[in-house]
Amino acid sequence: MSKTNFAEVNQEALLKIFTIPEAPDSTLGKIERHLSENLMGFLGEHIVAREKPLQEIEQNFQASSVPEQPVYVSDHTEFLLDKLVAHSVHTASPRFIGHMTSALPYFLLPLAKLMVGLNQNLVKIETSKAFTPLERNVLGMLHHLVYGQDEAFYKRWMHSAEHSLGAMCSGGTVANITALWVARNRLLKADGDFAGVANDGLAAGLAHYNYKRATVMVSERGHYSLSKAADVLGIGRRNLVAVATDENNRIRIDALREACEKVAAEGGKVMAIIGVAGTTETGHIDPLDQMADVAKEIGTHFHVDAAWGGATLLSNTHRHLLKGIERADSVTIDAHKQMYVPMGAGMVLFRDPGMVRAIEHHAEYIIRHGSKDLGSHTMEGSRSGMAMMVFSALHVMGRSGYELLIDGSMEKARYFAKLIDDQNDFEVITHPELCLLTYRFVPTRVKVALKTASAEQVRRLTPHLNALTRFVQKRQRETGQSFVSRTKLTPAQYGREPTVVFRVVLANPLTTQDMLAEVLEEQRQIARQATSLLGALHTELRELGLTNRD
Amino acid sequence: MSKTNFAEVNQEALLKIFTIPEAPDSTLGKIERHLSENLMGFLGEHIVAREKPLQEIEQNFQASSVPEQPVYVSDHTEFLLDKLVAHSVHTASPRFIGHMTSALPYFLLPLAKLMVGLNQNLVKIETSKAFTPLERNVLGMLHHLVYGQDEAFYKRWMHSAEHSLGAMCSGGTVANITALWVARNRLLKADGDFAGVANDGLAAGLAHYNYKRATVMVSERGHYSLSKAADVLGIGRRNLVAVATDENNRIRIDALREACEKVAAEGGKVMAIIGVAGTTETGHIDPLDQMADVAKEIGTHFHVDAAWGGATLLSNTHRHLLKGIERADSVTIDAHKQMYVPMGAGMVLFRDPGMVRAIEHHAEYIIRHGSKDLGSHTMEGSRSGMAMMVFSALHVMGRSGYELLIDGSMEKARYFAKLIDDQNDFEVITHPELCLLTYRFVPTRVKVALKTASAEQVRRLTPHLNALTRFVQKRQRETGQSFVSRTKLTPAQYGREPTVVFRVVLANPLTTQDMLAEVLEEQRQIARQATSLLGALHTELRELGLTNRD
Asked: Given an 8 Å threshold on Cβ–Cβ distance, is A88 in contact with B131?
């Protein structure tokens, strides 16, 4: 190779970084230990995030060109630790109780290095070999968890080339899109000279079957990924019909039936009904069994979005809450939520192993007909060996281990709800069905007043309380000792008035009762600092003539 | 908590796995070292895959239920090493030259553990903080690599809440779907009382604009993910128009123009033209600049699928091959291909930072309006901090480092093509434009005969040669010393007769010239064992009266 001497030297250095490092005392070995120690230090810190405005952090990420010259791994590592890791979010902190991202069991960390080091590509057996049966096994186990078919069923289908019990996905969104893609393609299937929606497109499909529109029915608490799915699949967000919920944020079966009838009466067709098993905002579970009845009656695809709540099936104590899920045509479960697996482990499961034919595709150089390549039935192409993380978590914790974790989280949520209700100046807005609840801070006098307030009085007080909740949540996040999230609900007990609430997810096994009490105390202290908001609230209270009830 | 004693003991053990392991001499520390050593051993092996039939491997992955009881991490680790790792594919082997998955630089492995350990979720800043500016920085650098805007441009847009220079995706398929989703939504945008395809759906969109169909134009060598995209987006595979290629597998501009005119004449509308920068099967690059002209003339979205070839832009020596890419509206690049980043690092880039508005979405509890949350402009929801791996690879190797790697791969491909052509019994089918080429084994007498064979003679010989190529590739893969892939092409020099070929991608920096020579020798030996196939071939040769030319 006709290179200058300088370039040759560089090339040697480059080849070296692709060559197996020798002993633990190699430079890379030392860097690895340093990184590990730092990571453990970070994960052991009790704060949730260091207070540093985003604008300041952005200053470290301004360079617009790819750096011209290489830097030493050690120097770059220091940069990462100082500028990135130090200003990451402590999602593993037991005081980080605001989102579904929680702590991981530590044994998954060395396995992550193994997974990345092997760098398998699950799209085809030629780049995955044993990882393909492993992934099919994971899908089989989850399928069994949901559908509970007998051994013969799994023996027949789990490793069958032309079938698939589901698909690993990067996350719940892709899983939901995949499920609705299957539903759409099965509804508008080939028929006579119509080659099917997959080939001829959606407009031709609707025209062929003489449907004015295709709709997807879901409760108004459905995840925003479903509206994304309706957009991506060409259905249109307007055709994702948001059905009213009851006072517990569960879809109203009468409203669902009515909405389905309306679609049909207007010449449309219901493409799918979606049950939510653990809404993102309140954690409630739709009445799946009754929804399955409706789906059966009108002959439509029944999908359950159990991205978050699906793990509850691992608890024999609580799996009854999801009764009816076994009647779903497809189910979404994210292992990176309540199954304690790292980010990127979504799954969709199909009751009927042949259902994936509706989205099957092949190519000449890979995923040929008859191969067991997983890529023929997935929306994504190249994919990592993430299934190994799910497989390992299932084995090392076992169903009984998961049961303890899940039961523990639910008990903790109930404990916290009781603790909140016992305070004079907090109130639960939605009680936990799983380990998620919402609440807000309400000054004592207001809490008393609300008990007997008229609809009009509620309507006038709520904006003040919303501002206060926003203030507390933001300040608490910025202070970085603990973190709860917030959302906006329309609680039945307050006349469906849009109400901002704190939202907590109690999935971290290390969160203690004391920590929960501290979270309330911290919020109380912050609220007391909101003097102008509190002033406005009390003025409103006086104007409404509600102060004397104190 | 009212648990039995047995459960309490278990719970303690469970909490322990979420608790930071102490010193390196802890059990987990020992397991980690053991895993690391085993991984290094595996990566150091010179075989590509151990010979073990898939059916036998499947025996280890038959259990259909989630295991009831936990197992020790150490026991499970042994299972993984023995049953999974040992039967994985050595994608890092310098003799694994069949696919785009190659070796990784070792410094990325400890970073992978860091990434997983931090378990950030890039959908929103509340679960990613500094990772969000980092990801935006990575997208900015790649945008600059493609579009080369000035500093002021990146200062203005890179960290702007309402804009995005692109999106990180799990892979090139999601990147391509995202690009076409943007193209579709921009074509069928809101207008008058039509609320846009995102809201009203595809059928309404086509009707509103009075388009009989929307089509996507791509060469017949386009990746199968594009046909998947056409299906998912409701366009229909039939409306993905495969345009004829020239003798170098590049789209014919005259044929493209003609196809576009035909669509328009029939009342359809071209939604996008896609240029391929590095076809998956032959590695050729479409004439992007001329395609940009056509796209401009007819006013359509121009997308470039540079999933594999995009990294070539890092080489000043060769980036001219992609001239015209800077005129694309959107570009797909996979960092997990020629950028040597682990699986799962796809990217789509948009020339205009406002383009992503076409697919924007928000939710109450996250990605609210005005936030810098990356989730408002991505197809996926929850995503890992994979951007860190791209960021680190760009810094530790630098543009100049990548240039050496890419230039080295291209030189190696040219060397191998020459080596093949120099053999009496091999022939190159497609020469490398980047580091990918295809070839086949052809017994000496056949090679000579083919030089003057008629179309009919070629037509009769080809199936025999195809069978031979299939045999050799399969046996070679099973033997596991080296791996090349295979595909089916329609080479111009053989009258477009469907021809099975070996396909090699020379991206591994550790692949040597000697190894390439050994691959040919191994294939020659395998071919000699195919006595019945060779017999049939020679019979055919005799019947065609071509033997005397030997």
From this structure: yes
Closest CA to B276 of B356, B344, B221: B221
Distance from CA of A139 to the nearest CA of B (A): 9
Q: Which residues pair with B392 in a beta bridge?
A: none
Contact B203 A203 (CB under 8 A): yes
Contacting residues of A for B368, CB less than 8 Å apart: none
Tell me the pLDDT of chain A (550 aa) as tens digits. Answer: 333 444 555 778 888 888 877 666 788 888 888 998 898 888 888 777 777 899 999 999 999 999 999 999 999 999 999 999 999 999 999 999 999 988 999 999 999 999 999 999 999 999 999 999 999 999 999 999 999 999 999 999 999 998 999 999 999 999 999 999 999 999 999 999 999 999 999 999 999 999 999 999 999 999 999 999 999 999 999 999 999 999 999 999 999 999 999 999 999 999 999 999 999 999 999 999 999 999 999 999 999 999 999 999 999 999 999 999 999 999 999 999 999 999 999 999 999 999 999 999 887 666 778 888 888 999 999 999 999 999 999 999 999 999 999 999 999 999 999 999 999 999 999 999 999 999 999 999 999 999 999 999 999 999 999 999 999 999 999 888 999 999 999 999 999 999 999 999 999 999 999 999 999 999 999 999 999 999 999 999 999 988 754 4
pTM greater than the 0.90 cutoff: yes
Residue type, B398: G
Q: Kindly list the residues from chain A whose CB atom is less than 8 angstroms away from the CB atom of residue B114.
A: 35, 39, 80, 85
* B64: chain A residues, CB-CB within 8 Å: 140-141, 144, 149, 151, 153-155, 158
SS3 annotation, A292-320: HHHHHHHCCEEEEECCCHHHHHHCCCCHH
Cβ within 8 Å, pair B113-A35: yes
B-chain CB neighbours of A101 within 8 Å are 119-121, 127, 382
List phi, psi (to 5°) of B466: -60, -45
What domains sit in chain A, N to C, each tagged with a CATH number? 164-352 (3.40.640.10), 401-549 (3.90.1150.10)
Nearest one of A249, A399, A248 to A313, comparing CA atoms: A399
Q: How far is CA A289 from the centre of its chain?
A: 23
